[in-house]
Design brief:
Number of helices: 14
Order of helices and strands: EHHHEHEHEHEEEHEEEHHHHEEHEEHH
Strand order of the largest sheet: 2-10-9-8-5-3-4
């Protein structure tokens, strides 16, 4: 007789990851019970997971059209404003490509703020469809607003593009002074808000945002694979698509009929609808407040353990905390120990920060208790490595911030 094995209990390497009682053996990662603290994707609510178990649907049928209509109605909760908003089947990077390729012409120039891994990616995307005019600065530090003002004087500049929240280094860009420079020049703002909304405050009207992109797998706590794109009325009026599948004119036209121009990732749309309903039930303001409070407690625990944030604390992100390693701590070994000894999953650094930092995500539906487990595991492993003198300081400080 063929042996029947439980689905999902085998690791990528082939070994079984849970015993007969469903518990992870010591030293093995179990995705069903892990404390999942990546900087995205994030932990999913059971309702969101269950939505993806819906049987196959006709994506041109009335039932799915009703799903799209509901998503369309709920999207302003994410962006903090009404507007022309679409959902693309593709990652956040796909959304950025759609934004740039539909708004920039080949001869245009776009000033790009580059002070992190995703600022660097944004510069590269802009360079595929127009001329990028980069204003570069140290990762995790604000760029010089005077340098931005000077770049905006370049002939042919049509927009200022920036990353609102750099998950790569746990840094929230101070966009307001940059937006003010662009406003004085009469230039609109394009925002990579992939990891910002709805965890951070939506950009106010005075920022002059013409377009922005949000990723499904970050603060919205939906699965990866969808990009949410917001356009102002002026932006919609001047769309000039340079691609086919990310032609926003066609997407907006289909959306008027609660449809999509091409086959969508139906299970992800169902999950997105559920994640949006959860956001509505909690309320965007309450989610932002909770995200901020958990971030504040996490930063307090980091200080209590004698660790250092990567960015200046005044610009530390509320959606992810980036922490510098103490001298002598190996990134792969440390995060591996968190995974195998504690079943805690955290992010490492990216690009030039690789090996220098680890990151604790606290966006989406992340709770105080999730981060308490993460802080305790981090403290335990640093103690085992002899990098902190005693146990308890981080956990105690974190607990003082729990409501």
């Amino acid at each position: 007789m063929t042996e029947v094995r439980s689905v999902g209990r085998v690791s990528p390497g082939g070994e079984k990851t849970a015993n007969d009682e469903g518990h992870a053996p010591e030293g093995l990662f179990d995705p069903f019970t892990s404390t999942f603290l990546l900087a995205g994707p994030v932990r999913l609510h059971p309702r969101v997971q269950q939505a993806m178990a819906t049987p196959s649907l006709n994506h041109r049928g009335e039932y799915f059209h009703e799903i799209v209509a509901e998503i369309k109605e709920l999207l302003p909760l994410v962006f903090g404003r009404p507007g022309h908003q679409v959902v693309l089947t593709g990652s956040g990077t796909c959304g950025l490509e759609a934004m740039v390729s539909n708004l920039a012409r080949r001869e245009d120039r776009v000033v790009v703020v580059n002070n992190g891994h995703f600022g660097d990616r944004l510069e590269k995307i802009v360079g595929r469809f127009a001329h990028a005019v980069p204003v570069r600065g140290p990762w995790g530090r604000p760029v010089d607003s005077e340098a931005v003002a000077a770049a905006l004087e370049t002939p042919g500049v049509v927009a200022l593009a920036a990353v609102y929240n750099e998950t790569s280094v746990g840094f929230t860009n101070p966009v307001a002074p940059l937006a003010e420079r662009a406003r004085r020049r009469g230039v609109p703002l394009w925002l990579d808000a992939i990891s910002a909304l709805p965890g951070l405050p939506p950009p106010p009207d005075e920022w002059g945002v013409e377009a922005m992109v949000v990723g499904s797998q970050k603060g919205l706590a939906a699965p990866p694979g969808l990009a949410l794109v917001h356009l102002s009325t002026k932006a919609r009026e001047r769309l000039v698509p340079q691609t086919f599948s990310t032609d926003l004119v066609e997407h907006l036209k289909s959306l008027e009929k609660n449809d999509t121009p091409f086959t969508p990732a139906v299970p992800l749309f169902l999950a997105l609808r559920e994640a949006l309903l959860l956001l509505k039930e909690e309320g965007p303001d309450r989610r932002r407040r909770r995200t901020h409070d958990v971030a504040k407690a996490t930063r307090a625990a980091v200080r209590a353990m004698g660790l250092e944030l990567y960015p200046p604390v005044e610009h530390a992100s509320d959606t992810v905390t980036a922490i510098r390693y103490p001298a002598g701590v190996d990134d792969a070994s440390f995060r591996g120990a968190l995974r195998t000894r504690h079943n805690v999953i955290v992010s490492g650094g990216q690009g030039q920060a690789r090996g220098q930092i680890f990151r604790l995500g606290h966006m989406g539906i992340a709770s105080f208790m999730d981060l308490l487990v993460g802080v305790a595991a981090v403290e335990r492993e640093l103690y085992r490595a002899g990098r902190i003198p005693e146990l308890g300081a981080g956990v105690r400080e974190f607990l003082t911030h729990v409501p």
